[in-house]
Structures are given as structure tokens and as C-alpha cells.
């Protein structure tokens, strides 16, 4: 389900940037863009050009929101089935699908994400069942990506994620309130399944270290709300979708408290001292916590609490989702090619016979 020159998500999903122009995706986009435009014309009396920007008022239209949520629900069911097949874990499609899929690297801070999950898990364990249900929205936290063969630290992070998942996913006290899944062999085919069913996408690299990034564009195009730092393409995405529709964190103040580190062995027998040591600068990595995991941790946790609050209000969340797709027009290949044709090639469109 999508429109405004951007991609589409209806029972499958449309993923593209200016480097990805497979013909079958273009055709899917064209068909479903028109479907949404036709829906708006029929249900509201307002005609929307499939290549035009979306009028904000219709993001609150009840029938559009209902169609939107149903499309997302179907895609989440596909993700749940895919995860069961690939990992053996059953996840509840009614939970929030929280996704970070990208190359495993310290600056991309999968470590910040998984430490935030550890913090969430520990807080849950301190509460009664009723307190947990009030405090926390059920989440399925999905990771994917590959580490370079010689990048030991990245491999430790993957190992940590899988060990945390093995502990959390088998804890009967927590149940479906929290699941952690690492998807093996992440590639474009896997992305085609995961991205349309995603609801929260994490683009949390250390500010100033991401050149641009395009996966965040794909998530926005598919109505996925993002949590991230002011880094790379996040800056432009936040401008286009609206500040209220992007969860920003990452204060740079030196006073930010450091990350509390988990060393108890509760997540298995593997020794993570070297991994945690890199946060302290004890391994010869130079300045302690070079990628600012500890410094951004409190801000990150506070922002995640805002995510939970927003998700409880499904009308608000769906509006944010719609506006993310609407605001992604700037990143569409349609817009890129149109500008190339106009400004570089000097050619005009013609109607095919």
C-alpha cells in the first residue's frame, strides 16, 4: 500500500531506491499506487494523482487507516511465517515488529539495540505480569545482517544477539511480550519479506559516521516509522516525513550517563568480557566507547518509551505510518528519473501508443 511516486505495500511490498529498478517491482508499484489513489477518490471524493504528494488530512481517514492496517497485518503474518521457517521461533503477529537489518558494524550500533533489549528484559523481570502489560508494548525484535569474515567484534555482537534471544525467547514469564530473532543469510530476498511487515525500523548509527544509507528510505516507503540519530539520510527523511513522525534520539552532551553493562552470565556461558571491554577502552581500541553506545544509551531508552506510548494509540501510529510513505516521495526512483530527464538529459515524457 503506497502512493505519491513512492513504493507500495499490498500483500508483498515494494522496495526500491535509485539503484534498484527491477521491472516486476516497478509494475507492482504502478498497480498499487493507482489502487490507493482510486480508494481515496471513491471513499472521500478527493482525487489523488498517483505521482502527487499526499494530502495530510487523509492520513486520518478511518477507512484508509483500516485498509492500511489490514495490509500491514497481512505482511506481518508473512514475516511471522518466514521467521518460523528460518529460525524455528514462533512470534505473535499482533506484537510490534521492531527491525534492524544492515551490515553488522560497531558504528551501526547493533550493540546499542541489543543492550536496550537487555535493559527492557531486566526491567520486565523486576515487575509483576500486570505491571509488564501496562508498562511495555509486546515486541518482536528482529535483527539481520552479515559481518566481514575477519571482523571479530562484529561476530561477537551477532553471538550476543543470538544468546540473548535464546534466553528471552524461552522465558515463560515473559512469553510473547518480548522476542528476539536473528535472521540468517540476510539479502535482498529476505528484505522483500521483512521490510513490508516492519513497523519500527532502527537506524541508530553514531552521528556523523553514516555516509547516507538507503535501507532507511525503503522502510519509510513501506510505512515503517523510524527511530534514529541525526545521521546520514535520516536527516532528510525526518525533514520529509515530519519531525512528529520520526523518533529522534542521541544527545551529544558529555554528561550523559554511561551504559550499564551486563556481565552476570545470564545469557549463556560465552565470555563477553572482550566485547564489553571495547566499551571501556580496555582492549587497545583507543578512546573508551568510541562509538558512543554508553553516551547515547539513556537518550535511546527514553526514546523507546515514547515509541511504546505512540504504538498504544493505533490511530496515531497508523497516521504516522501513512505520512512516512507519503513523505518518502523525494527518495523514489520516479522522482530521481524525472529530474534526470528534465535537468540532465533534456527529454520530455511521451504517451506510449
Question: Which fold does the CATH topology refer to?
Answer: Rossmann fold
* Helix segment tally: 12
Assign the structural class, choosing from mainly alpha, mainly beta, alpha/beta, alpha+beta, or little secondary structure. Answer: alpha/beta
| CATH top-level class | Alpha Beta
Count of separate structural domains: 1
Outline the biggest β-sheet.
6 strands, parallel
At the fourth level of CATH, the homologous superfamily is Glycogen Phosphorylase B
What's the SSE pattern?
HHEHHEHEHEHEHEHHHH
The strands making up the biggest β-sheet line up spatially as 3-2-1-4-5-6
Poorly predicted segments: 1-32, 44-51, 251-264
Our Rg estimate from Cα atoms comes to 21 Å
| Percent of residues in beta strands | 5-15%
Amino- and carboxy-terminal Cα gap: 28 Å
CATH architecture descriptor name: 3-Layer(aba) Sandwich
Return the average pLDDT rounded to an integer. Answer: 80
Which descriptor suits the 3D outline?
globular
- What is the share of helical residues? 40-55%
Number of strands: 6
